[in-house]
Automatic annotation (TrEMBL):
This is ATP phosphoribosyltransferase. Pfam families: HisG. It comes from Feifania hominis. GO terms for biological process: L-histidine biosynthetic process. The gene is hisG. Heteromultimer composed of HisG and HisZ subunits. NCBIfam families: hisG. Pathway: Amino-acid biosynthesis; L-histidine biosynthesis; L-histidine from 5-phospho-alpha-D-ribose 1-diphosphate: step 1/9.
């Protein structure tokens, strides 16, 4: 058996991913007792978990230092990269939307529209496709502040319950696309560790299906 190193996105996706991997048959007691450790070998010597920030999961998998990764489709769309996207894990589900003050019409008027987003590439691609001239401002978080402080006409962000928008007096202006966590695989590892990675994909796919 060859070791499979799996990069998990820390934070919001971590617990849901852990529960899915447990249903797929992994013993994750070591993850639950990790403290501040970032590399967690699992018993049996088949798997090692690596805890990373979302965009870094893409980097580690693309470069082959991790074989497999779990990351949101939002991060994949924003950063791109060369790897196989093999499974929709159907967790961390939310959607990309354009949001702003209710009634904002981004196609009205001739002035350049200012759009704030944690996802500047996704935002730029959307407005380019809509034929709307937009200046994109990269914001690191709490992007809902941008229209409230009149920095931007609107934002592009992920919306789950809609609570953050609602409680800040904002509304969805346009729905873009659904987002959920994906399993990604390094292209070389997919060949060199075909048997082990194939078995992992099958067991996780079954756990996803059983949960529906
Ligand atoms: N409100 C949400 N509902 C569902 N999934 C979400 C939500 N916010 C984020 N996600 C998913 O979880 C992933 C990780 O989000 P998380 O907030 O933990 O990290 P982040 O966006 O990098 O922020 P931070 O800088 O605080 O770590 C996102 O890339 C997305 O796929
Ligand atoms: O529709 P809701 O259920 O309210 O969720 C959406 C919010 O969650 C995310 O923010 P996050 O909590 O990750 O904080 P951040 O803005 O600092 O990234 C996202 O950027 C929205 O602000």
């Amino acid at each position: 058996m060859q070791l499979i190193r799996i990069a998990l996105t820390k934070g919001r996706l971590e617990e849901q991913t852990a529960r899915l991997l447990e249903r797929a048959g992994m013993d994750l007691a070591a993850l639950r007792e990790k403290g501040r450790r970032l590399i967690i070998p699992l018993p049996g010597g088949c798997f090692e978990l690596v805890l990373a920030k979302a965009a870094d999961v893409l980097t580690y998998v693309e470069r082959g230092v991790c074989d497999v990764g779990v990351v949101g489709r939002d991060t994949i769309l924003e950063h791109g990269g060369s790897f196989y996207e093999v499974l929709d894990l159907r967790l961390g589900t939310c959607r990309f939307a354009v949001a702003g003050l209710p009634g904002t019409d981004l196609s009205a008027g001739h002035e350049k529209k200012v759009i704030a987003s944690k996802y500047p590439n996704v935002a730029a691609a959307h407005f380019r496709q809509r034929g709307i001239d937009a200046e994109i401002i990269k914001i690191e978080g709490s992007v809902e502040l941008a229209p409230l402080l009149h920095l931007a006409h609107a934002i592009v962000d992920i919306v789950e319950s809609g609570r953050t928008l609602r409680e800040n007096g904002l509304a969805v202006l346009e729905e873009l696309m659904p987002v959920s966590a994906r399993m990604i695989v390094n292209t070389t590892a997919m060949k060199l560790k075909k048997h082990e990675i194939g078995a992992l994909i099958d067991s996780v796919a079954r756990a996803v299906e059983e949960d529906i």
